[in-house]
Target: Aromatic amino acid hydroxylase
Amino acid sequence: MDTHFESNPLLEKLPNHLRQFIKAQDYDEYTPINQAVWRYVMRKNVDYLSRVAHESYLEGLKKTGISVENIPSMYGMNRILKEIGWAAVAVDGFIPPNAFMEFQAYNVLVIASDIRQLENIEYTPAPDIIHEGAGHAPIIANPEYAEYLRRFGEIGSKAISSAKDYEMYEAIRLLSILKEAEDADPNEIDRVEKLVDDLQNNMGALSEMAQIRNLHWWTVEYGLIGSLDNPKIYGAGLLSSIGESEWCMTDQVKKLPYSIEAVDQSFDITKPQPQLYVTPDFAHLNLVLEEFANKMALRTGGLTGIKKVIESKALATIELSTGLQISGVFTNVIENEGKPVYVQTTGKTALSYREKELVGHSTEYHAEGFGSPIGRLRGINLAIEDMSPRDLKAYNIYEGEVVTLDFEGGITVMGEIITGSRNLQGEIILISFKNCTVTHGDTVLFQPEWGIYDMAVGKKVVSAFSGPADVQSFDMITHVPTSKTIKAKKNEERANLEKMYQQVRDYREGKETSTDLNEILNTLQERYPSDWLLTVELTEIAERDQLSDLKNRAINHLEDVKHRRTEIKHLIDFGLDLILDKVKH
Model:
């Protein structure tokens, strides 16, 4: 079943740069073992989490159409999610943090459509459909939490990254893939683990993106809610991990009250978390988010904001006090007395107002970059943007006039004014010159032979954030990850095991009752002595259908497996606990 993602109106609103991450969910790729893994985890979760998860969890499973018996299809999820104002898309593993959060801002849940291997049934560092579908989706049925998630995406997608953040993303993505893959080279895993450690230890000051990812981790992924003495689970990482969801409730995991301090608490995605944060309620999450947002360049702007976007070496936007937005890769700022007096981009740049590109100021027009003074004119109390038409005339800022504008900080603009552009409030936001020279002391910043000079108008920078003001201004369909998820290997031995899983599933569902279950158990004992999950399913059918001989043989085989594979003893016990009222382990 090739599931298309055009099954929810919200998805029609997604910009192309987000659509590049979406892949079709090929439901036929899910094997009978995959389905058995999903069913085991979900049965265990529903049984255990009904006691320790936030009350929204079980209700959310019903509202989002997530079945215990079958891996969910994107089509079915979208049809039902539409009723609560959300949608879902399938992606290939980790996607860049900005994109992940921007999807949330559009009320779209990103679901890694692969599923963990049986060997990683308790926990996988790679995002998978159990984590996303069974972890994230149910809780968004809670309206207050859903709004937090949307708002987080809206703010988080504007967070400014450092140049090292993307290196870290690629390294963690590769490590998660290798740890989930069959027969991965241990030396390669060691190499990438060392790379991740080296990056984590040499990130320097945390960027806005690194900090807000910390908030995301300690709330959306690993959050607890309620009191420190009696917390409940709502974080998707805990809801989808049958091992960690139990361990996190023990005294071995330190419980801390959730606060803004969590921005500086980093995490290791490959290990269980030594401490978790507890929020008293979902409303408190928004209070902390707003507290952090108030410190972001998105809201503070200024020289610090400009320096952040320069350090990011990535496409970003600054907004001036007039509302004019400059989007590009910022490479230089000239400062004076702690204030920016000139900014410069290199390469394609676009000018916008209120997230809409100004006509005539596309990346084609500003293909070589853009530079402009910021601030007030020297010796004049009235900023250009605050001048009335009469004031502008008095200072010769008028079409056809040759003018010299001396700005505070030593920037001088001298040329003939061609025209000006105004915003909706009538403030002048852009002035165009010909025969123009721009200097800073002895340094020439623009000269007449370069053509028309467009000068942005604004007395200060009020905002700086990641990405363009108008997403249509730039070709952002450029993401090519350096790693791809590794599919399970196919061979005759595995195919025969998959066939038996399907036969048992069909028997349980009443589709095929002529299957010889005893013969399947014989084959497992002889040819697949390490497999345990299918024998657990045979025990379930034997208990249901009162097949005492099969039940005893299956339990005895599982006892043998537990002795040989002590590391999975608890998983077998989990499975038997769900099936039998009382059994000796």
